[in-house]
Every structure is written in C-alpha cells, then in structure tokens.
Amino acid sequence: MILNHLKKKLIKKNIKTNSFIHPTILVFDSGVGGLSIYREIKKISPDSHYIYVFDNEAFPYGEKTEEFIINRVFEIIKAIASKHLITIAVIACNTASTVSLTKLRKHFSFPIVGTVPAIKPAIKTTRNGIIGLLATTATIKSKYTKELINQFAINCKIVQLNSSTLVQLAEKKIYGKKPSLNKINQIIKQWITMPEPPDTIILGCTHFHLLKNELKKVFPHKTKFIDSSSAIAKRTIWLINNQIEIKFSNEKNFAYCLSINKNLRKLRFVLKKEGFISLKQLFI
C-alpha cells in the first residue's frame, strides 16, 4: 500500500509518522466522468486523501475553445492549490489534458498526471487494424491527439467519432437516469455499418468509461474497449512513491463544484457513496 511505502521513507529520514496523515490526490474533471479514474486510483491507495473537483458551471468542455479550456483549468487548479497542500493532481478529462497539461506542468511544483487517448494499447489489441476513437470534438481536434496518431498508428486505420450527446448520457447516468441504448446505437451506427467495423474502441473521454456496459450491448460481440484508467492509477501512485518531498493531509475526502444548483441533490448522495463526505463550492 502507498501509505506503508511512504512511512518507510519517512522513517529512514527520522521523521515521525502519523497513521492519520495521507498524501492528497486531487482529481479534476469537467463533470463526473473523472470518478471512473478516481475509483481506479482508490483501489490501489484506499487510504490516501482525495479531493474531487468538477466544473459543472462550464460543463461540457468538448465544444469549448482551447484557450477557454486552458485558462479555465489553470484557474481551478490554482484555486485548489491555494487552499490545500496537493501531493499530486490528476486531470481526469481527456479534453482538458490534451490542451492544458503543458501550462499546468510549467506553473505547479507538484506532479500532474493527464488522461489522453490510449492509442498505443489499442494498436497492440486490434486484430483487423481498424481502431475507433470515441472522444469529444476538442480531443479529436487537438494537436496532441493528432501527434499520437501520426507517431504510433501509421500502420492502422483510425476512425474518429465525436459525441457530446454520449457525454451527457454518461453524466445523467450518474444522476440516476438510465441511458437509452437506442440513442447510443444511433450515435455509433456509422461504425457498425462499415464494411469492416473497428474491432477496438478507444474510450477517449472519461465519461465514456461509465457507459462501457451499454456500449458493449450495441457493438459487435468481440469488440474490445480500451481506456487508460488503470494505467493512470498506476502512474499516479508511482509518482507519489517517488517524490523526494511529500505533502501530507489529515483532512477527510471532499468534493468541490463550481456551481450550486438543484441538480446536485442526487449527486451529493452519489459522492457520499464514493467516499466524499461533503460538497463545497469553489470560487475562482
């Protein structure tokens, strides 16, 4: 476990340890899709202190400009860092990661882990060489995504599909509304009706992880679904364990949103089930 590993490091430095202090992991997303990444990290490190931040005021990010996303994410992370000692930040949003990581890493001293389309794992998985990238408009258009494809997928055919509707369906699922398989089928119909459909689908948005069961029902039986949640979790813990100086917290897990509204009633209950004892409003 991560806490035991860190305790050993502290003992070697003759620093007293306390079982109630933990590294603080900040997980950020435009909505609740980032909970899929949080869950994977928590499997490895259940004792860490978690802060979950979602920008429900500007959600969804998929159709926003790069300039807006970069500035927005920067201001949010800066606001959190001014209030809490952050050990590591995870940008659990493909859209935000593909455009804002450079600025974030230049400004903040703590490590920042991004979430980007899992191109390389998909290439290793595909059997027919046709890979579907399911993502937001901003992720597909980003320079980072294009570079990943040009660098690693020259021998594969990458078909791309953006859908803000799928993002909304995933968000509503967290709030308790069952996703419509008919709507999902209409969105991905152009792939299914191809002479040879993609046999491997990259879930290029953390919201889509939440729809994996529904997507499996509408795609051909042997279709493989690739996401980066497990790799992100392992990378996050590795970076914490290998930090020279680690910031600790004795706080409880809690969440921040950018806007308090009536839709949060159900979400408060969901967040409590996920381990977040309170939901606060963040002002930037």
TrEMBL record:
GO molecular function: glutamate racemase activity
Pathway: Cell wall biogenesis; peptidoglycan biosynthesis
Keywords tagged on the record: Cell shape, Cell wall biogenesis/degradation, Isomerase, Peptidoglycan synthesis
Pfam families: Asp_Glu_race
Family stated for the protein in its record: Belongs to the aspartate/glutamate racemases family.
Role summary: Provides the (R)-glutamate required for cell wall biosynthesis.
Protein name from the UniProt record: Glutamate racemase
Gene source species: Candidatus Providencia siddallii
